[in-house]
Amino acid sequence: MTISIHELVVTGPDKVPARLKLNGKSHLVFGPTDTGKSYIVECLRYCFGGSQKPKGVGFSDGYTRAAAQISLSNSHFFTLFRNLLNGEEAVYEGFHESPPQSEIALENNISELLQIWCGAVGVKILIKSGKLGNLTAGDLRRVSIFDEIETLNNVSFEGKDTNLKTRNKSALAMILSGSDDSEIILPTSTNDRNIAKGHAEAIDEQINSLLADVPEGLSLKDAQESLLKVTAEIEVINHHISSHASELAELRNTRLRIDKERRQQFQKFAALKEAENRFQLLDKKYVSDQQRLQAISIAASIADSFEIRPCPLCYTDIQHQLRHQDQDTPTPMLLLAAHAENEKISGLREGLKEALNDVLINLDEISNALKQNEREALENEQKQDALLAPQNTNMKYGLETLSDRKVALSMAIADLLRVDNLRIRLAEMKGKSKRKKQTIDRDMAESSTALCKRIKALLDDWGVPDVDSVYFDDSVSDININQRKRTSYGKGKRGIFLTAYMVALMERATANGHPHLGFTIIDSPVVTYKDPKYGTNSDDEELLDESVKDRFYTWLANRTEPGQILILENEEPNLETLNSLNFTEFVGPKGVPGRLGFFPV
């Protein structure tokens, strides 16, 4: 669908509404400078979702709301409201000067509705290297609304901002050709490159870790061949073992019995050894007791020969101590008791000696039994090894060694296979981590050729002199005229060339159902030598002849192609053309009868 503008209304408290009636048709607004023409362009851009508020022009003070009444090609009518103070927006069905209190505004904002109405929903374009984005209302406004600076600027259509050049070129290519960039092959983004670089480093570390466990110089092929050989040798041994299974089973049962006997004998040996240690410890205690008794006997035998003396400190006689009297044992009795106790301990030691001899005899028997058990175990092991030993002279290792070798080779093969897979993954990650230039291959030959033919036809209709050829330069999304860039021409020709470019683009997009707002607004497209603003300092500006202006206005009055065009100019048409145009004239503060400007005074 396409959009047609019916009326722009700017209102404010206690203010007479400022109106511009277009009635959905192409229109010319002309008049001198400072009559509000630039404000109209900025206000319409703002009503269609632009972020920049219109600049005040003096008479605009006190106006707080702008409304753009539009119709769609499906005969639905809407009003787009924007608050000129805080930027609030609302969309209502039907035509209104102010938001109707009895109706509910649409849920979507203006930019979302423009995408829906113009068929831009889901359309993907390349917005920067390696990243796709949506075709937005801002992209549509950029090819539809041009203020005076944008019209006459000497910047190619891709723009100055390097961050937006890719987006601008992609958007124009989509609007021109109708094909989006959803199928384009994207290079890796910066974030993905950094992630891939980290993955590559991690994979490299993992490869080194796996190779550290693999024997040096062992290749996957060698490991697989060695594994086959080891497996074959193990199968030969297993076959030999299976043929001697009964004999081997008997040997293993015998070994189990030998091991059981050994455990039992070792338990007995440990118990006897503990008994030996305890008996020896007890004998040492008896010896200590006898030595103590001998000391008591000696002391008692010489105690009576000592003279009793009083305390050298207090001179108290020991006979006066009650405790001494109670515990004073006769010396002969003490000697007899010590002798008797010593004899008893000697008897106990004799019995202990016999018991210790029995333990030592048993220990000797158990030691011999353990040695015999060890010999039987060794003999049994040798018989088993003989059965398990390689029977082929070419086989160097037994079953146990071969089994260990097989495990090691299997692990090495698994590691090497993993390394091969990781190396493939590493090469992939290294490829992703490298910065690659975005290659864009859009088939725009047919659409750009048709566009340039229409631009040439328009320029011929307008009588622009010296236009022999028009070509599309997709590197900057602009046109070349006579092998010269559009921006290399003077101000006069730049403006008329851009106008033809954008009008042709609008006509092609609307005719083929490509996303487009369906109208084109251009401020100052025809700059002539008589222009009061630019005609004075016209050196190297390549300003146009008056005939171009007349033919341009005649074309605007008679055009039947799709799309609405709003032109804002300083110079008025001739009277004959004026009568066939839809126009609004601002006379300015000259004292001439008529409308002074956009805002009522």
UniProtKB/TrEMBL annotation:
Classification via InterPro entries: P-loop_NTPase
Coiled-coil features, chain-numbered ranges: 349-383
UniProtKB keywords: Coiled coil
Gene3D superfamilies in the cross-refs: P-loop containing nucleotide triphosphate hydrolases
Protein's name according to its UniProt entry: ATPase involved in DNA repair
